[in-house]
Amino acid sequence: MKHHKIAELLKTEHLLQDYTVKGWVRAFRSNRFISLNDGSTINNLQCVVDFENTPEEVLQQINVGAAISVKGTLKESEGKGQRVEIEAQEIKILGEANPEEVKKTILSPKRHTLEKLREQAHLRVRTNTFSAVMRVRSKLSFAVHQYFQQNGFNYVNTPIITGSDAEGAGEMFKVTNFNLKDTPKNEDGEIDFKKDFFGKETNLTVSGQLEAETYALGLGQVYTFGPTFRAENSNTSRHLAEFWMIEPEVAFCDLDGNMDLAEDFIKYVLNYILENCDDDLDFLENRIIQEDKSKPESERQPMKLREKLKFITENNFKRVSYTEAIDILKNSKPNKKKKFNYIIKEWGADLQSEHERFLVEKHFKCPVILFDYPANIKAFYMRLNEDEKTVRAMDILFPGIGEIVGGSQREERLEVLQQKMNELGIDEKELWWYLDTRKFGTCVHSGFGLGFERLVLFATGMTNIRDVIPYPRTPQNAEF
Ligand code: 4AD
Ligand code: MG
Q1: Shared-domain flag, residues 295 and 435
Q2: In this protein, which residues make up the domain named Aminoacyl-transfer RNA synthetases class-II family profile (predicted)?
Q3: Which amino acids bring their CB within 6 angstroms of ligand 1?
Q4: Residue range 379-386: mean pLDDT, rounded
């Protein structure tokens, strides 16, 4: 007999029928009530065990963490807390879990800290918090593809192994080939590890942008959605060494069009979550009640997650030039609370996260799109403005997150691009293919990159980026 998903049974109107479910035991009370979860929903199905007719050795093995199948009749539940329950006729143990061993893991039914859960990243998806986060993450991925596909974009897969540094920031992981016979040797017979991708020097990509640009100048509108890598030693709750980035690129589109696209896109995917992740949002909203140890339980408030998401989808993002932002920061008084007391002095300096947070959380109190940054703090490919000091860059800053999007109109003029590359010491020979796009039918074009994990952070109300990706890669952690 086919087995059913618990999500389906919890909603069905077809009661008093027999069903089979398979899942993992979350709790077993009074030798009678099993809470079963199969990952299809945050909610458990209560299975009522007929303990007189269940063999003793089966009863013995219904332990937290075990995989079981339950066949029985779905009925209206008499107990509180659930609409339906299954009256079990037959229980099979599919995979046992030794209670003594379980006690040592995060599967044991007590509250574990998020730090503890990170140490057992392979098991944490069996907890409510992580299953909710990962279902929302999956739905967000779907919404990303749906948005672009519905709007005439082509999905392109840009290379993971690449010879170029798209951001010119030197934050690349080198690719090493241990098949040493392919690796060139120097005059002393030593292996040239620099060139060990079959004789070439290569890295893991930091961004698919440059390749996406070449495709936009042929397919018109494209997007990437893939893993990117940064060898920056940043130990923050916002940085990963491996993260997923969404990078649309559009021909015949200027910076204003780029801002419109980014704003529309973000609103669409967050709205999709509001409409399609009800149970998980309920759970995530309430989770904070238990997490917030600063107050007694009776005073704890559920997080206003839906309100926060709704606010984003219903209000315009504030568009502010870098120069205006500097004026605002200069005129703002240093805040007594430590967070915002670092006030910027000079036009031309990069904004620190406290400046970004000040603008978003204290000053405008909404997402902010900052544009027209000083040329010398941004990447080489950005379109130089007529003032020759600023470039058509844009960053989108989000409350509680900081930068969620970085993008720009691209420098489409060959000579200007070449001059900029020369100034920065970027070898034209290495990017000959990129420069070709400016030789053959160049045009105004723009794009941006959105850090997927930062989006998931915002959508779930989680606070550490390590908790929204299955296996976080950070300077301390690549164990799994
Ligand atoms: O601002 P970034 O570096 O921009 C680019 O890579 C451009 N080539 C994108 C483009 O125009 N196609 O990165 C884009 C976004 C950031 O705004 C941030 O959300 C995310 O990627 N990001 C990271 N997320 C997690 N961990 C890191 N170490 C990240 N670095 C950037
Ligand atoms: Mg950036």
Answers
A1: yes
A2: 134-470
A3: 166-167, 207, 209, 230, 239-240, 243, 245, 247, 403-407, 447-451, 453-454
A4: 98
